[in-house]
Amino acid sequence: MSVMESALSYYVKKFSGYTTNTFKIQPAGKTSGIQANDIITINLPSNAIVDLRHFKVFFNAGIANAGAGGNGRLPAKIDSLFSRVEILVGGVQVQQGNPFYNVLRHLKDAVCGDKTNPVNGHPEIVRNVSSAGSSVALVNTDNEGQLGSNAKLGSPFISTSDSPYCVDYWEGFLGTAEPRLLDTSLLGSIQIRITLAPNSVLTNSKAIAEAGSSLFTDNSAVSTFVGVGSGSVSYQVNNLFATIECVSIADETLDAMYADMMSEQGYLPVPFKNYYAFSQAHSGSSKFQVSTQSLDRVWTALRPSTTIAGTATEPNLRDYNTQSAPLPVVGYVPVANTMRHGNTKEKYVSPAFFFSPTGPSMTYQLQINNAFIPQAPLTGAELASYTASNLPPHEYLPDDLSMAEYLTSACVICTLLNMIYIEDNRIISGLNTQISNVMCSLNTTGTPYSSSTFDSIVFLECTSEMRISPGRQVVVVN
Question: pLDDT tens, 397-423?
Fold first, then answer.
């Protein structure tokens, strides 16, 4: 019957002895009063089959010094508060992580669509604007208080003892390891270490009404954000815990299969995606190098490292290292030729996650040794089409991403170096840079925005492999 199409076949498969449950995990160390740059350590259950995709971290986060530091606001996408995620198995560092995990999440979501849970994440900064160009505040001007993100006071809906925020989507080992149902009885202790982001990811502003005089002459974006606090603000994380789903299979077939595979090839392979990050001042070229068995993709973007006032033809730019007011997103605002959501909304983004080209005529090209990818430099909107064809399997440019937004604040470029869709079959096909010394560089040309400087951020997406041997031995092949 297996040779027949399912629509014509009368059969059913039965899998007995399968049960599942979700368990709560308390982190090692403090669970409240967690601040910027602190490290959280979470140990996964041992002697269990865990579903890595269902690992979640719950917590309450809020502005800790709103009164003293001005109008503080948490960034959109609550995983912006996580700057590094490391994975250790039996003391072996399987995923070393990088200090730009939150930037990677914003960068990928900019061109692949937001993966944040809409209920348990933090909302974007979007405000109402009248057709005449004068802005109107949100119904509640202190939306942080409504969300319960005042670390001391809570809100009418969320108390300070609740854990309303949740991170349930992960890059790297937790989100890509196969098989996703991992038998921890074969391994040593699995430890997850999360480093909290610096306070610069916050913005010192709230949802305050905009005066019409704050708009540019063409009403394309606001030049200032009313209500910006004079001092810096900080955040605090409380009531943190994790959960993970564990399954039980009352069948010896699985254990027998593991034993056969170990006997046949000596180990059990667990492939997963690993990310290496490089950030440096960019002046036309940024060089980087990595030794890996499979370089699958190169994700690149540029972030302004200076603060300049925009004009009708140039966007606002703010130093991403400095806590300041959010930046307007062109394409969400009332201009006929760039409108995306009608003429009633305007959107802002934290400078830490603002990905801008160096100028309106910027060209892009990746160089690997003496090879140029693509062969001819690409400019402007050409980069969007190039990136769309190089995204991971089953990922597409968001339906509401406009050309204006991509060219001003979401200019992310993805270059594919492995066989497309091959990852679904757990086949390693990327560029092997272990054989020879491979030098890479990101090259750009074009007239930059006036008085602006940029830092490049490059993420190398590689396929690593964790090999589980008898006796709970673990070896990582990068």
Answer: 998 888 888 988 999 999 999 988 788
